[in-house]
Amino acid sequence: MQSYQLIRSKRKTLSLQIDKNAQLLVRAPMRLSVKKIEDFINEKQKWIQKKQVEITSRIPPKQNYEQGNRYLFLGKSYPLQPVESGDPLTFNGQSFQFNNQYDGYSAFHWFYKKEFIKIAMPILNQLAEKHRLNYQEIRFKAQKTRWGSCSANDNINLNYLLIMAPISVIEAVIAHELAHIKHKNHGQDFYRLLDSMISTQKQTDVWLKDNGQKLHNLKPLV
Ligand SMILES: [Zn+2]
Predict the structure, then answer these.
(1) Which of 42, 102, 160, 195 has its CA 20 to 30 A from that of 67?
(2) Cβ–Cβ contacts within 10 Å for residue 166, how many?
(3) In angstroms, what is the span from residue 177 Cα to ligand 1's centroid?
(4) Longest Cα pair distance anywhere in the chain, in angstroms?
(5) Model pLDDT, residue 222
(6) Is the pLDDT of residue 27 over 70?
């Protein structure tokens, strides 16, 4: 039997409601038998399920940063190892050490941003120098909708959640934004320049299309 919360009152009819936590609420007249109530619920099972699925998909996933949950780093996933002290989050090549005195979500953002800057800056400066593409400012932000951008004044924004992607994807996104310093559109000249900078643009677009959502959600891959 489906679990439900029963609220009896001086009413004449039965009614079903799915609350914002996807729980079933049943309102029933004072003396209606449980058997009758449950028959009614069974009859409406399809509707209940449909509503619960709808609502559940809107509830953000609970984040519990537990032993063994896997998180992405440079295109591969590694298990989490809770520890009691030290930096919020460290990585030893095989696992993440998460100091559970900290909030897990913030610890991952802190770690991902720090590591992304470490990896992205040399790539950015090397490509900029080689192709004479001088940017003004660089900012690192976790954005919901973009991997990077280049403004009219040649300021570049990069999404540090890209640290979860393979290095070739990081390189391709950086090259793409740098190429916009010269060409502020996606025309032929833009792609000609981009092709001269990197060879993995196509694979990158495919990878981001298939995996992009995982990067935004920042949830364990179990
Ligand atoms: Zn673009």
Answers:
(1) 160
(2) 18
(3) 6
(4) 82
(5) 42
(6) yes
Strand partners, 156: 138, 150
Is residue 2 within 8 Å of residue 22, measured between CB atoms?
A: no
3-state DSSP helix/strand/coil % of the chain, to nearest 5: 45, 20, 35
Q: What share of the chain in percent tops pLDDT 70?
A: 95
Which residues make Cβ contacts (< 8 Å) with residue 109, sequence separation at least 6?
A: 142, 218
Sheet (strand 15-18) strand order: 5-9, 24-29, 15-18
Q: 106 CA distance to ligand 1 centroid (A)?
A: 29
Cα gap 163→113, rounded to integer Å: 8
Q: What is the Cα–Cα distance from 185 to 30, expressed in whole angstroms?
A: 68
Using the 8-state DSSP alphabet, how is residue 187 labeled? Answer: S
Q: Which residues pair with 99 in a beta bridge?
A: 83
Burial of 150 (0-12, 13-18, 19+ CB in 10 A): buried
Record the pTM: 0.69
Ordered structural domains, the chain, with CATH = 5-56 (no CATH), 70-217 (3.30.2010.10)
- Structural contact between residues 204 and 173, judged by C-beta atoms closer than 8 angstroms: yes
